[in-house]
From TrEMBL:
The gene is thiL. It comes from the Bacteria. Substrate binds at H51, E260, F311. It comes from bacterium (Candidatus Blackallbacteria) CG17_big_fil_post_rev_8_21_14_2_50_48_46. Keywords: ATP-binding, Kinase, Magnesium, Metal-binding, Nucleotide-binding, Thiamine biosynthesis, Transferase. This is Thiamine-monophosphate kinase. The keyword rRNA processing does not apply. It catalyses: thiamine phosphate + ATP = thiamine diphosphate + ADP.
Amino acid sequence: MHENAIIQLAKKFPHFHPEVQLGIGDDTAILGPLNQSSLLWTTDLLLEDVHFRRNYFSPEDLAWKALAVNLSDIAAMGGEPLAFTLGLGLPPEMDAAWIQAFFKALQAASEFWQVELVGGDTVRSSAKIVISINLLGTALHPTLQSGAQPGDNLFVSGSFGGAAAGLYCLENNLEGYACLKEKLLRPQPQLKAAQALSKICNRLALTDASDGLGRSLQLLCGPKLGCSILLEKVPCLPELKQLAEAENLSAWPWIIEGGEDYELVAALPPEQCAAAEKLGWIQIGSITPSPQIQIVSSDGSRHPLKETLGFQHF
């Protein structure tokens, strides 16, 4: 498929936001004015055989995930997605049917999340698929990773470990466990959950868990604070424990160290806990003044978290 044909697929994407004055069709897109909001800007790169494998990621799954992982960063800032650009590198053997399926699914995802495609670029790669999305969003009062204080309570937006367990299933050709595989293939960015929480909290530290729960806790605590996490309070899918039992494995490395769940982790003052729980957030621990992260088991034993957790590129 020629580049012009790919551009024509991209031009079919709908227009949602008045802030997007000009999308695809000129040398740049034009956005603005933003009406006192801060501009949020994030990018994520997906590389074949590093972030995904073509044998179990369909073009539809890949399109959804490429957009969703960027949306999760906007969610972590309490923001609204606005527009994105797409950089797409494709190897010579990619046929028109695959490309059309990818763009059809990406358009469906953009419509679902109400975010506009406003430009991008395509290139022939030597052997692997490369996808790079730059996503812009807005927020009146962005929520940062910093800001946690001793005595704050830690909350999460959903379950952990499902994506890592799903990857285990796919890599080992295990049948069943559809909901675990879905967590990996079709992550759900928690935009509404973050926006609702930021509206009720006058002080909030927030981050997404793309690189695992343990890494997110390290980011929220920073170098001067720590936290205590009740392991049994961390939510996980029942199928994850069933898989661990069937495979004679511990579920906890998936839950603490496994990434790509794209849930959110928040630190907020005790007086706002009840309101957070009404929104569906789940309390798992608290911030401590001592700069150490402790995982507390059901028997009361404490285990310090490793210094380096989560996915590491280098």
